[in-house]
Specification:
Layout: H1 2-112, H2 117-171, E1 179-185, E2 190-193, E3 206-211, E4 214-224, E5 229-236, E6 247-250
Antiparallel strand pairs: 1-2, 1-6, 2-5, 3-4, 3-6, 4-5
Helix pairs in contact: 1-2
């Protein structure tokens, strides 16, 4: 009986030890697997953060581009609206001019129809006052018209400058470049200049290297950065060597040529109408007319329809 219990106890201890050994081994495997899983999850999180940052940068750049395009479109629309307003104002001023001219014609007609000597003085005074008021209205209308023409010319000039700028950007051409050589790498055949995209440099242009008034080399842009540009030395004069501080200017082939710009519809500026000179006439009073209005036998002079005091 005792031997049986002893054997059974030994077998139980051995079984327990075996189970513990297997369980300990599985726990180690699970611990290693958990550690690998944690590392993989951490790497996945880092990769996801990197992708999210790149996505945010791309979205930011896209919004900036869209905002710049919307700003340009808004400016052009604003210029067109201002041009329409000036045209409408011109029509209003022309209408006012016609009304004033009609008043003047009516006053001249009324003046010719005055017959009674007793009413002549009073009527002539009233008519002269009305004519002075009409002349004042004409002068004010003329000044308003001149101001409208001036504003129209300024608007046309602004629109033309804006369209020329857009044409230069589309053509990849520039007006001028003022930069310096910042670094030289003679062994590799390239240099670095101290100007880039933020200074208006276009990657398509060709550049010349000048020392005093002499062109000693030509450059081709290979890498355009915001504030610097990397350029290959495409040609170099015999015996010359590019040095830090040499001037970099725009090549003649890349300068802006208005005759080669892309076709962009340009509305020609309206010609400024010449204002008719002020006409001053002095009437000699008739001997039998103490008021200086002319005799009854003199027909009133009809205004000429082709005359336009506003130069229209």
């Amino acid at each position: 009986m005792w031997n049986t219990l002893t054997i059974f106890s030994i077998l139980f201890v051995i079984g327990a030890a075996s189970i513990r050994f297997v369980t300990t081994k599985d726990l180690k495997h699970e611990s290693i697997a958990l550690e690998l899983t944690s590392k993989n999850a951490e790497r996945a999180n880092d990769h996801q953060k990197e992708i999210k940052e790149k996505t945010n940068d791309a979205e930011t750049k896209t919004k900036e581009i869209d905002a710049a395009a919307a700003t340009q479109e808004g400016e052009e629309a604003k210029q067109k609206n201002e041009e329409s307003d000036k045209t409408a104002k011109k029509g209003t001023l022309e209408g006012q001019l016609k009304v004033a001219q009609d008043k003047l014609d009516k006053l001249n007609k009324d003046l010719a129809e005055i017959g009674e000597i007793e009413d002549l003085v009073e009527k002539s005074q009233n008519l002269q006052a009305e004519m002075a008021a009409v002349q004042q209205e004409i002068a004010i209308t003329k000044e308003n018209y001149k101001n409208a023409v001036t504003k129209r010319e300024a608007t046309d000039s602004t629109i033309a400058d804006f369209r020329d700028k857009v044409s230069r950007q589309r053509a990849g051409q520039m007006i001028e470049v003022n930069a310096k050589i910042a670094q030289t790498f003679d062994n590799w055949g390239f240099v670095v200049i101290n100007a880039g995209g933020n200074q208006g440099i276009n990657a398509k242009v060709k550049l010349d290297v000048k020392r005093e008034d002499k062109i000693i080399g030509k450059l081709t842009i290979t890498n355009l950065e915001p504030n610097v540009s990397v350029c290959d030395v495409s040609s170099l004069s015999d015996g010359e060597k590019i040095a830090v501080g040499d001037s970099v200017v725009l090549s003649a082939e890349s300068k802006w040529d208005p005759t080669k710009k892309p076709i962009v519809e340009i509305v020609p500026a309206a010609a400024t109408p010449a204002l008719a000179p002020e006409q001053t006439t002095t009437e000699e009073p008739a001997d039998d007319d103490p008021f200086g209005l002319g005799g009854d036998n003199k027909e009133p002079e009809e205004p000429k329809t082709e005359e336009d005091p506003f130069g229209l």
